[in-house]
Please model this.
Amino acid sequence: MLPYGRQTVTEEDIEAVAAVLRTDWLTTGPQVEGFEADLAKWTGGVGCASVSNGTAALHVAYAAAGVGPGDEVIVPPMTFVATASSAALLGAKIVFADVEEETFTLDPAAAAAATTSRTKVVSAVDYAGHPADYDALRAALRGSDALLLADAAHSIGATYRGRPVGTLADLTTFSFFPTKHLTTGEGGAVAAPDPGLLERARRFRNIGLVRDRAEQRWPDEGGWHQEVHEFGLNYRLPDVLCALGRAQLRRLDAFLARRAELVARYDEALAGLDGVLTPGRRSWAEPAWHLYPIRVLDGRRREVYDAMRAAGIGVQVNYIPVHWHPAFADLGYRRGSCPVAESFYTQQLSLPLYPTLSDADQDRVIDALGAALRGRPASAVA
Model:
């Protein structure tokens, strides 16, 4: 089965991990600080806190923003459920706002309409690697105290009007899951331009521990002393995985370039293919392309999905609208509230996209898609 996404691990990566295994540090050592510094080179110098996974990054970011019971968090439904569930677990009410046609990122007008005096955070999602319209979102939030969060699980390395993802919002979260642009096995990070927000994120991911004597209530207790002023969780990313991330970051430029080449090949090959629409993009964005999401028209998405899977092509659907999940349905959320996202879901299909996808394998994907649309069986792909 040809997967829709795949990690790219080399001997250099393996040696980087092995080198750490030969030291006294497996977790919370020098590679953590090094990885965060390397990552900041991709966020326009904005400081980063590494965490154990992308969902943890969202939870940490919401906690750093002070999200709690009585607050509202605005989320687009076209995302993985964690963008919403991690805020709900802090007691927030999730308010779903629809997405824009073409990019399927958060619609600034919908976000403005959903904003109230209780809105604590507005979470934009850079769907498929295309940045949301952050200037328009800032304008939509004018007069509100809400913080803007960028869920950039898909978009590290992307730019918006020439500015890198990581500089565009009050808080930015990343994921380093194996199918993403770089991997630490599991892992994630939170970026924040405001030093106070960044410190809150770092403290929450480290169980809330306060070791700085200048900030302790009882600093003279002894050299061993540490305090917890606000509860946190253990979301630390260990040294051994940060070493993998540092090795991967050295090749991120190449990863992004290959993804862009593959997207261009898909665009050209599928431009005249009846029954599908290729991904849209805006002139002000340089996407990072985590996904290549086509739209299969005429109600044929399930048919095409099944045919391509039968042919050994691991297409995927990204994502079920979040408010359709039973956990949210049981809270009273109803279908029909976000028609653009819901219509897109009925058509969406992600084609394989990863740096080691060969031109020949991509051509097999294209041929299998054409065969599926013609209603003919495609030859199996190993």
About this structure: The mean pLDDT is 97. The chain has two domains: 11-249, 252-373.
